[in-house]
Amino acid sequence: MSVRLEYETLAPPRAVPLAHVEEELIRLRLEAIVSVSDTAAVAQEQQPMTRACMSNLIVYCDDPKVADALPDQIGLMARHHPARVVLLVDNTPDQSQEIVAQISAGLTHLGKRPQISSEQIRLSAPLGGHGRLPSAARPFLIGDLPTALWWNANKPPGSGGELFSELERMATSIVYDSRGWRDPRAGLVSTAAWALGGNHPTLVTDLAWMRTAVWRRLFAEALAPHVLPGALPHIESLQLRHGPHALPMVWLFVGWLAECLDWKPTGGKFTSDKQLKLNFQSAKGPVAIDITRCDEGPAELRQAKIITRGLGMTAPKIEAEFEALDGDRVAIRIGNPQSGCDGGVSENIVSTPNEPVVLMLARQLANRTGQPEFRKALKNAQILAKEFSS
Predict the structure, then answer these.
(1) pTM of the model
(2) Among 171, 132, 180, 165, which Cα is nearest to 150's?
(3) Considering the domain 211-351 in this protein, what is its CATH number?
């Protein structure tokens, strides 16, 4: 029987002196214990309150408005992965030259067991004061626990200068999001050079890569050898459509395909500001990939269509199309493009629930083994962006 997890904020964020953060967190925990213990439900049937913490999480955010929405999201994450969260907010307007601290905490109810599962410390720096954030955050990390850094900014980690370098040295894993980068080509090339270079924590991942998981799974299942024998090695062309700011996600997806199918890049170029053509060589012949950016819509992969070579008289060309629909669904259409308008085309609608960023983050915090598939896809994506996307 599953246990329902419910999250409750103990108290609104309260401003505290930076030197008294730990003292005030203890006070907040004691207040929570007294408050919960006074309820009739606890007195009669609930178990004592406990404190749970599996990780430290440093969140760097360069937009105060985005940071204001994070506490509720972090509460959702804490239901699945309890953590002490140190939120570093840069570029805070109308603030004194000092770093301002706020604290809050939240409870997760595991059936009848209340559990303090999230302690949040927000450190806000004034304009130009971000250099002091790492040293201000370091004392609040709990020893003997792994520390993850979530680089929640619309710029690559390598663009963070000394600030990022200091935060990197404090972390055992780093999560970033390439979606939304202003210069995706330069950002991916520089980030891959850093992530694959060895001078970083063992665990590095891109949330854009994690968003490709649904598409990777659907491709692997729909085109599996026991479902469509010979389809994967005989791919002749691939057409991809994506929303604004999602090109790094597409490069990673193509990089994964190239690794799985042993494709070798042979050329590529932007034919317009919306279209990129890439060429590969497979064991069965050339593969042409057309990538098109839509003017609007979510920053996601929206459509993928493959056409295979003919496999002989008894196995004609195969066309497989994957299209994202409204309501977190994907339509999968597979058939023979030479058999007429609707001849032999099958369609299935698959539910693909959109996983919130913080749940992807919770999964990554629990990951202690790394992602070799991501590293291989990133290496290939770096080659595509650097050498074949000019």
Answers:
(1) 0.90
(2) 171
(3) 3.30.360
